[in-house]
Amino acid sequence: MQPNDMTFFQRFQDDILAGRKTITLRDASESHFNVGDVLRVGRFEDDGYFCTIKVTGTSTVTLDTLSEKHAQQENMSLDELKQVITEIYPGQSQFYVIDFKCL
Could you give the CA distance from residue 68 to residue 79 in angstroms, rounded to a whole number? Predict the structure, then answer.
């Protein structure tokens, strides 16, 4: 079986497949993706493949500069987004925004 290039928590799978979640915020360990990369995506919980995405943009953001636009692209409120990010990446403030579309 081919390995996945990126994983998402299972709770985000439906939003990704429906096109409601079009970005992901990652820490430095996943800052190596580039525009045009085509990635296999799996669930974090079981690494089960569920789609292929194409990276359409990359940028950086800090916890303090997250905006309503980022929240909309994540399909959640800004407060929810900040809470989720601080739970996943405690103590970190610099993040890498990866814009994507499902293929």
Answer: 9
SS3 call for 73: helix
Q: Which residues contact 79 (CB under 8 A, 6 or more apart)?
A: none
Helical residues (DSSP H) of the chain, grouped into ranges: 13-17, 68-74, 78-88
The neighbour count for residue 80, using CB atoms within 10 Å, is 12
pTM of the model: 0.93
| pLDDT at residue 1 is higher than 70 | no
- Please, which residues bridge with residue 61 across strands? 95
Find all residues with CB under 8 Å of 101, minimum gap 6, and list them.
Answer: 19, 22, 53, 54, 56
Quick one: pLDDT at residue 2? Answer: 83
Residues with catalytic annotation? Answer: 21, 24, 74
